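RECORD TYPE: inverse folding
INPUT: structure tokens
STRUCTURE:
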């Protein structure tokens, strides 16, 4: 086994998916190294230096059996890995999400909310920060700041942008066995009551023209709205393409 293949197999065993273990250190493997470094509080530079190798040798896997099995049985077609590589800083397709972001529920961080927000189903509960995957958090923070500048407080309330419907949530998709994009902390829901899953335009509130600047702010950073492209789930925005 080459050093590169050993590196990939150790990272994968720890739940930091590298795509196929082929001994080729491409963008997905480098992303896995960076995530491993962050998890072990090492300098995050994506290089498999002595500290990384020592940490990989020393540590045992902390991944729960279910996640380990999911990583083990994961099939990411080579073509998808190449697409991830090609798009660089932009988000992967949904099929490439496990390889790109790693195990569900890992590498989460908090983003401070730059405007007033409350929990959609408990409006007395203020939301001061939301939990997101550490790779999408800086992008989400920029978008939320744009939204704070684009709309007044009363406009945000009228649109329901102040009603938080969830971000990180390690669960399966409704009616399916695949993980929801929320399981990686790469999706955010707004005002679920007025944007129910099966509602399209014009019933869903966020399908109305005054929501366009909101969606443009996300789309500028490569985020995707299922409402905008598939006319359902207008509450939801995600850092993954279809
Ligand atoms: Zn959602």
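DESIGNED SEQUENCE:
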């Amino acid at each position: 086994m080459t050093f590169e293949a050993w590196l990939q197999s150790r990272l994968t065993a720890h739940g930091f998916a590298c795509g196929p273990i082929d001994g080729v250190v491409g963008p997905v493997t480098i992303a896995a190294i960076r995530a491993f470094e962050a998890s072990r509080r090492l300098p995050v530079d994506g290089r498999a230096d002595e500290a990384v190798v020592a940490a990989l040798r020393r540590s045992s896997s902390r991944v729960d059996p279910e996640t380990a099995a999911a990583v083990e049985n994961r099939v990411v077609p080579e073509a998808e890995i190449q697409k991830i590589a090609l798009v660089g800083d932009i988000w992967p397709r949904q099929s490439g999400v496990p390889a790109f972001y790693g195990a569900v529920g890992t590498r989460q961080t908090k983003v401070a909310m730059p405007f007033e927000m409350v929990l959609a189903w408990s409006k007395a509960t203020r939301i001061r920060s939301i939990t997101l995957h550490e790779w999408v958090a800086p992008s989400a923070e920029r978008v939320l700041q744009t939204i704070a500048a684009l709309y007044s407080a009363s406009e945000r309330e009228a649109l329901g942008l102040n009603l938080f419907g969830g971000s990180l949530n390690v669960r399966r998709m409704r009616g399916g066995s695949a993980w929801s994009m929320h399981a990686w902390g790469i999706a955010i829901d707004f005002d679920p009551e007025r944007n129910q899953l099966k509602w399209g335009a014009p019933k869903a509130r966020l399908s109305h023209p005054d929501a366009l600047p909101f969606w443009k702010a996300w789309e500028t950073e490569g985020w995707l709205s299922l409402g905008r492209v598939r006319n359902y789930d207008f509450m939801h925005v995600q850092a993954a393409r279809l």
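NOTES: The chain has two domains: 3-101, 108-238.
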